[in-house]
Specification:
The chain has 423 residues and is of the alpha/beta class. It contains 14 helices and 14 strands. It is globular and about 60 Å long.
């Protein structure tokens, strides 16, 4: 397969974001102007998108190739293997989602270059060709006919070239409108809907008008608040498109396979321990993440990239943390905001996950996992407006290079969504 090596970007390294995002006492007009002028430092990729990380990924096409990818990552420091469990004998819509996810992960702007390894050349080439459309360096290797040792050696030489090339790429100053920010909550409790989820909503209310891309999802966790979510669509057509997605999940998955209800799954035991006794209560807190003003402009399939310009989107996605963050990363989002009540340790291999909590107990017992402390909201020492500003500041700092708690603790959860049994 052909190898495409990109040239070093010419944009110079420029200083970081402005400090005014931390100011809490600005009036609405002044604050809006500050957000509009805010900048961050990122890597502008060949297709114009901006990444906030600079990974060189060793991507297995299938489960059989995990070992070879991990061996290459062990040989070449500065690269990252992303093992997963699927990629053999999938078909139909399930196979389409599989390819869309892998290609999306390799295409994400947080990835500088990709080495793909598969058991055979055909499907491996399909992933390589999909990633190559972004213009970034990518090459593929098939194991059949060569064996592990020879494939690992060839892939290691290429990975070394990629990582040295990527190490010289320069950050550039970028407007806040270049940001793509996703969200999903986890281990929710009563504090989530009262503090950390509204904090994300406040952030979106402030940044969506200035041109960022946002996305929310978790289809099963809209149950009981579907009428409210439907009303937040930008048009009746988008509302109907979204409702069909939600209704299909209700009919084809929940009603078809439930025993009596969703107990122990939605809400989880952790949710119930935290005071959320019904899925309806959980759904109302979940929707706080889209703020008061935002309307979603399209409803996306799992791992689908948005195509209608800046704004808020909905993605039909799992409510499981690793699956949902993986799907949104595959859709092209480069920073993830994750409200949590009881404490969730989720991370992702290529996307920094910023965790926000308003639960004082969680800050005491699991504080090493939390990036933004909004416990002051419940103590009435912090307004939601101030909490939103604090999150925006943390997003900018993360874009500029600050490691999130999940990154510093080595959390790289990655889980593909599978629709049905393999052939």
């Amino acid at each position: 397969m052909a190898t495409t090596i990109a040239h070093e970007m010419s944009s110079p390294f420029v200083g970081g974001a402005t400090d005014q995002l931390m100011t809490k006492s600005l009036d609405a007009k002044r604050a809006s102007a500050d957000f509009e002028n805010a900048t961050f430092r990122g890597w502008r990729r060949e297709n114009g998108r901006v990444g906030v990380r600079n990974h060189v990924v060793i991507l297995p096409l299938d489960d059989l190739s995990n070992s070879a990818c991990e061996a290459v990552a062990n040989n070449v420091k500065g690269t990252m293997a992303i093992p997963h469990a699927y990629g053999r004998l999938q078909f139909g819509e399930d196979l389409d989602l599989f390819f869309r996810t892998l290609i999306g992960i390799g295409s994400n702007p947080n990835v500088a270059a990709v080495v793909v390894i598969g058991i055979e050349d055909g499907w491996t080439g399909r992933v390589v060709d999909g990633i190559a459309k972004t213009g970034k360096p990518v090459v593929g290797f098939g194991i059949e006919g060569h064996g592990d040792i020879a494939t690992i050696a060839r892939a290691s030489y290429q990975a070394k070239r990629f990582v040295q090339w990527a190490s010289e790429l320069k950050r550039e100053e970028c407007p806040i409108s270049d940001l793509w920010v996703s969200t999903k909550c986890g281990e929710s409790d009563t504090t989530t809907g009262l503090s950390s989820c509204p904090t994300v909503g406040n952030m979106y209310d402030k940044l969506i008008p200035h041109g960022i891309y946002g996305v929310f999802g978790e289809t099963s966790e809209i149950t009981g608040a579907e009428h409210l979510c439907r009303e937040r669509a930008a048009s009746p057509e988008i509302a109907e498109k979204w409702y069909k997605m939600w209704k299909a999940y209700q009919d084809d998955v929940i009603e078809a396979h439930k025993t009596n209800d969703l107990s122990d799954s939605q809400p989880t035991k952790g949710n119930i321990a935290g005071g959320l006794t019904t899925i309806e209560e959980k759904a109302l807190g979940n929707l706080e993440k889209i703020g008061r003003k935002c309307r979603y402009i399209d409803a996306l399939e799992p791992a689908e990239a948005p195509a209608k310009g800046p704004g808020l989107y909905y993605m039909d996605s799992s409510s499981a943390a690793a699956e949902c963050v993986t799907l949104m990363a595959a859709g092209g989002y480069v920073v993830h905001t994750f409200p949590t009540g009881q404490g969730n340790v989720i991370g992702n291999p290529i996307v920094p996950v910023i965790k926000i909590s308003g639960n004082p107990k969680t800050l005491r017992t699991m504080g090493e996992h939390i990036d933004v402390d909004v416990t002051g909201v419940l103590r009435r020492e912090m307004t939601l407006d101030q909490a939103g500003d604090a999150l925006i500041d943390m997003i900018v700092r993360t874009c500029n290079g600050r490691l999130t708690a999940a990154e510093s603790l080595g959390h790289r959860e990655f889980s593909l969504t599978k629709l049905y049994r393999s052939a």
